[in-house]
Amino acid sequence: MRHWRQACAGVSGWRKVGCGPCCRGGPGWTRRGGRSGGVWPCPLCRGPHTACPEGGVLCVRMQRRGQLLERWGEGAFSVVRRCVKLCTGHEYAAKIINTKKLSARDHQKLEREARICRLLKHSNIVRLHDSISEEGFHYLVFDLVTGGELFEDIVAREYYSEADASHCIQQILEAVLHCHQMGVVHRDLKPENLLLASKCKGAAVKLADFGLAIEVQGDQQAWFGFAGTPGYLSPEVLRKEAYGKPVDIWACGVILYILLVGYPPFWDEDQHKLYQQIKAGAYDFPSPEWDTVTPEAKNLINQMLTINPAKRITAHEALKHPWVCQRSTVASMMHRQETVECLKKFNARRKLKGAILTTMLATRNFSGRWGQGGSGRPVTGRPCPPAARKQEVIKITEQLIEAVNNGDFEAYAKICDPGLTSFEPEALGNLVEGMDFHRFYFENLLAKNSKPIHTTILNPHVHVIGEDAACIAYIRLTQYIDGQGRPRTSQSEETRVWHRRDGKWQNVHFHCSGAPVAPLQ
């Protein structure tokens, strides 16, 4: 209560009505001379006082340092909000972690991440500016990075060349070099962790997410545990041998390969076969896409993807490679349209996998043990059998498609998560987030379509992920009448990720390939 009074006392023009603490479902905030009842947002965290997931403690330490604004994202036990430093007006991103749900080991990991991030101060690394520990919560205040993922930006460009790829990898290597000089190994270099500082043309690449990073002494090699993302793991990690800084260079080689042609050097749906490829260093430069890549670029990739870590090129050496430091005369300036097209497909695949993984993590606790729902509350009662859950998922999918066919946006919105992410033909290969993109089609096409539409779902395959998540893949046949009165049929391959919250299934991710979902004629 003392903390709550301190938080409220510093807010000019606001007073507290009743005795409930801010954001904890108490009587609510009110302007002086105004009315109560929960209609005013909390003036500190900007969230409705009855729905703020961070709790009233959030306002204790942050009020003197910054003002928290809208939510930018969330994980199983964390929320990211934009914030403004009061004394300067500068904007940052505040990651708010609910430490009440973390195990002792996870607390150690969090402390290690904060310690490592405090060491790193480089223009190509997302910088940690503040770390605040409070009762039940931990706040990490980072650079506000608004440009999105590097790989998503590339596919939106009108022009992209080998020289552009060289500039990208140079910035990544600069970040890696700084890490290695500070005795830090990232261990999870991948496209999802390569961001752009802003939407401006030529914005700096920023390396993010040091959750798996470790500290090493010099060129120390040791077994630090199995960590990373499958396609970017090095041979020495897969062989469970001693490793160190060279694992980051291997991942850079994989990233550079993708930057040049839009697909990875190692790929197989079977993870065991994928790992065999990596351990053998079994990659090549197939025609015709690699025919237009300069020999110097291939040479750098070969030096990065050297199986023996002792012979692998270092970040310092890679930055001196002619293809990097002399790109204006060495790297090709030809536009690589085929790379952009392949990269769109690659982005779509990894986003779908990311959505499935996020849903899986939301149904388990931070340490990775099954047995808790997405709300973090212990599951009580007898669990629903997998076969019954599969039928539930098929049924709710049919209901969603029926809402689409009927042009019923209200019914559709009830079934979908407000932050629904999707890849679909209408979005031209881009990731769409939220409901506005779909609302347009409902209001301007589907709701006004008086012609009959019939949908058939073929070969539905449901993969149950714990108690509260599932993924369904199916072929969708849509029959409709075109503008000339002729019967038509379109086919699409669709995947939906479902998450059950408070006993109700919600669609959190949608992936469609093939014909548009809705007949546009």
Summarize the structure.
This protein has 521 residues and is an alpha+beta fold. The protein has helices at 2-9, 58-62, 104-119, 150-156, 162-181, 235-238, 246-261, 271-280, 295-304, 315-319, 322-325, 327-330, 337-362, 386-405, 409-415, 436-446; strands at 14-16, 29-31, 66-74, 78-85, 91-98, 128-134, 137-143, 184-185, 194-196, 205-207, 214-215, 416-423, 432-433, 453-464, 469-481, 487-501, 504-514.
Tell me what you see in this structure.
By secondary structure, the chain is of the alpha+beta class. It contains 16 helices and 17 strands. Strands 13-12-17-16-15-14 form a six-stranded mixed beta sheet. The chain is globular, with a radius of gyration of 25 Å. The relative contact order is 0.07.
Class inferred from helices and paired strands: alpha+beta
Describe the largest sheet: 6 strands, mixed
End-to-end CA span: 62 Å
Number of helices: 16
**How many strand units?**
17
Low-pLDDT parts are 1-59, 363-383, 517-521
Proportion of strand residues = 15-25%
Helical fraction equals 25-40%
Mean pLDDT across the residues is 79
| Largest sheet, spatial ordering of strands | 13-12-17-16-15-14
Rg estimate, integer Å: 25 Å
Shape: globular
